[in-house]
Design goal:
The chain is mostly helical. It is built from 11 helices and no strands.
């Protein structure tokens, strides 16, 4: 076993121990009467609720609906953002016309658009996907704009002198630069995607983790609310960990070469 693996195991053991201490303190605090069970429930009750969800199959359709809205919206929003960002960066006149309006829209809270999206697309998954798109689209646009503008102007001039066509420059110069920036912002975008999907389910939905949580809150079922939060946080954590591993691999590729001598 290498020292690196031992270090990771020690870190994981420390984190598990800290989590166990929090759960013990939570359970003990409620049983001792220091915390109100009505407002914070107990870990044992939350665990029992989660077990019922898993064994009865109740969890999976809601989990699938939230995942679908978040991931489809993430893919569509980032894809559209990259296309628009490239267009604005490579056509300066278009950028001067449109970028101020996009900056204004980016500053607006996107939740205000949800009633309109629900009117247009209904209360199904489409309106949640659209809300997610409004959240991650601007990340794609402004990351792509930044990436293209950061490309070395001397390198661009040299490539042009060598006779590269606009399509070749887009494929070999601008797109790789944009993808590096998009990869760097993917973890942030994933967080926005989950926020959009669950907010949409809070507002109006027939299915999804947000629907489960808000329904339990309306009935004052604290254990059910806590169970929904545990599932949402665990899901976001697992996806973020997967993206972190992917980003670590890309980081090796992004490192500039070191020359000796």
């Amino acid at each position: 076993m290498t020292s690196r693996v031992r270090g990771r195991l020690a870190t994981a053991a420390g984190q598990a121990g800290a989590l166990a201490l929090v759960l013990i303190a939570w359970e003990g605090g409620v049983r001792a009467g220091w915390l109100s069970e009505e407002f914070v429930s107990r870990p044992v009750l939350v665990g029992a609720e989660l077990w019922r969800w898993v064994t009865s199959g109740f969890l999976w359709p809601h989990l699938g609906a939230t995942l679908a809205a978040a991931l489809v919206g993430l893919a569509l929003g980032l894809g559209a953002g990259v296309v628009v960002g490239l267009a604005l960066a490579l056509v300066p006149v278009l950028g001067e016309l449109v970028e101020p309006a996009l900056a204004t829209l980016n500053a607006a809270p996107r939740i205000v658009f949800y009633p309109l999206l629900a009117l247009w697309l209904g209360l199904g998954v489409a309106s949640k996907v659209a809300l997610v798109v409004t959240l991650v689209f601007f990340v794609g646009v402004f990351n792509t704009l930044g990436a293209v503008r950061e490309v070395d102007r001397t390198l661009v001039a040299q490539v042009r002198v060598l006779g590269a066509s606009p399509a070749a420059m887009l494929r070999h110069l601008y797109l790789p630069a944009a993808l590096v920036w998009i990869a760097a912002g993917l973890r942030t975008s994933l967080g926005f995607a989950f926020v959009g999907a669950i907010l949409g389910e809070y507002m109006a939905s027939m299915r999804g983790l947000g629907n489960v949580i808000i329904g339990a809150q309306n009935l004052f079922q604290t254990s059910r609310v806590m169970a929904g939060l545990v599932v949402a946080v665990t899901l976001a954590g697992l996806l973020d960990a997967a993206l972190a591993r992917l980003d670590a691999r890309w980081s090796v590729w992004r490192q500039e070469p070191h020359y000796e001598g």
